[in-house]
Specification:
Radius of gyration: 24 Å
Distance between the termini: 43 Å
Number of helices: 2
Strand content: 5-15%
Strand order of the largest sheet: 1-2
Length: 99
């Protein structure tokens, strides 16, 4: 049995003989690539800043400072995620969805 042109695959993509895949998925792919490039750029900028600025900072070498440096990123991410969860739940309570 021959395949029809534009056969739809499991994920809704046109898999055989169709340029529709490119037209539909290209903007999403470009958005994702742009996000990855932004993350890599910011990561490189932060790494360069740490490499050049950090040695000049007068940070004492104590256990408390080491503990703060290790725990602070996790605490910040946890606070942001908690705030977003609270905001999401609060928005649902004030603006109930209408189906």
């Amino acid at each position: 049995m021959p395949f029809a042109q534009g056969h739809i695959g499991r994920q809704g993509w046109f898999t055989i003989g169709s340029t529709e895949t490119i037209r539909v998925k290209l903007p999403v792919l470009l958005d994702q690539m742009g996000f990855v490039v932004k993350v890599l750029g910011m990561s490189a900028a932060i790494a360069i800043a740490f490499k050049t600025v950090a040695p000049q900072l007068p940070i004492p070498a104590t256990s408390a400072v080491s503990l703060a440096i290790v725990l602070l990123p996790s605490l910040i991410v946890g606070a942001i995620l908690t705030w977003q969860l609270w905001k999401l739940n609060h928005a649902d309570a004030t603006h109930p969805r209408r189906d």
